[in-house]
Amino acid sequence: xLQGSARAEKRTIxxxxxKDHFSANSAGYAAHRPTYPAALVDFLTDAAPGxxxxxxxxxxxGQLSTRLAERFAQVVATDASAGQIxxxxxxxxxxxxxxxxxxxxxxxxxxxxxxxxxxxxWLDLExxxxxxxxxARPGAVLxxxxxxxxxxxxxxxxxxxxxxxxxxxxxxxxxxWPPERRHVEDGYRSLPFxxxxxxxxxxxxxxxxxxxxxxxxxxxxxxxxxxxxxxxxGPIETFHAxxxxxxxxxxxxxxxxxxxxxRVGRVGAVRxxxx
Length: 275
Prior knowledge:
Layout lengths: L5 H7 L13 H7 L5 H10 L5 E5 L7 H4 L5 E6 L2 H5 L7 E5 L12 E7 L7 H11 E12 L3 E2 L3 H17 L8 H5 L10 E2 L6 E6 L1 H8 L3 H10 L2 H14 L6 E14 L8
Parallel strand pairs: 1-2, 1-4, 2-3, 4-5
Antiparallel strand pairs: 5-9, 6-9, 7-9, 8-9
Helix pairs in contact: 2-9, 7-11
């Protein structure tokens, strides 16, 4: 039986240790963050030793949690941001909890799969890994998942839009990214990962977006909000205008891709035979 309640766990969050970059824009996050491909869920499900329970840590508004619920009997989805949990997408098999990553509230040796999508760089990994080892059943899988800078489809018509986005990311709001962002840019390769590594397929998130979709997504970036507080909205509005000029017809859909980086490992030993 799963223990604890979201209300009780909210009171235990030590806000002084939690860098909350997202609660202020939880509705935008829910509306504009891309979801994850079925191929990712298939790979993780096939690697897990069972399909009873998945734990999705740093779940945001449930972009991966709800996909995992298509394959697992139950998903517990946790986030230290109560605002993100409040805006999360409901699902019959997803139980959302506002709680830190290192306090899932789950029983020992109960979880088949632990995922952290686009959030591992915010965690106290030593404490989190201790919690993973506690809740993982023998042979459970841990997956750290991230996506970096998007790409607008690489053809002649879309190259200008891609360059505008990259210039904005690097030159305009680059100084406003929190230092943890470097881990996203290197695909989590610089994060410690003391688990038996599993080979992961090359995957990406691919969407067909109109101009408003892309702008809505970019507005969820923590660096955009940080820049607006320091220098105002002027540079952001200039970017919007430049992107609109490069895009052309705002109702035209363009292919946008987010290459995924995965660190996947086996937690503990797999029991062989009886006993």
